[in-house]
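Researcher: Here's a chain I'd like modeled. Treat it as a single chain, no partners, no ligands.
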Amino acid sequence: MNFGTVVVAAGLSGLLSFAFLAVAIGSEYWYIIDVDQASNSTWQFRSSHSGLWRTYEDLHSAIVILLPVSLVLLVFGGIFGLVASLAHSYTLLTVEAVYFLICSFFTLSGVCIYVSYSEQALDLLQWEIGTELPAHVHVSFGWSLVMACLSYSLELVTSFLLVLAARLAYCQRHNESTVALSMT
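Model: Modeled as a single isolated chain. Structure tokens:
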């Protein structure tokens, strides 16, 4: 494997992770309620979708904080990753890999809290109407949540590639010092 190829792949993976998380945070399709209007004679339920910015409860505020923090951390991670890769520093690349693992922890935490929050919101809705949701009401997670999960996965891939780049930098430096010693 070539150091440059691995670093470019890590950079692209980190950039895609940032783009997916930015799209996920900015979109309104995290939670989808789809109502079959032909079966809905009372019009009590309507189809809708929601994003991260609709309500302001305690659990929801944690989501609103964690995912944008992860997004900002990804920006700084990209900057530091560029510096670490240009320096060919084993230590900096390793620290950068750990940094991306921390970013992925924030993203995963935000996604898990959102799923828990959504489950609680559905339970509250069922409690308010007093019964199970009718058969013509379908509740699901949307593509925004999928984008956030893809971002998490790409953050892990970036971290792995940075560890690989750190290992290649270490081996490259070790081989250069061995060659330099054998020439003297």
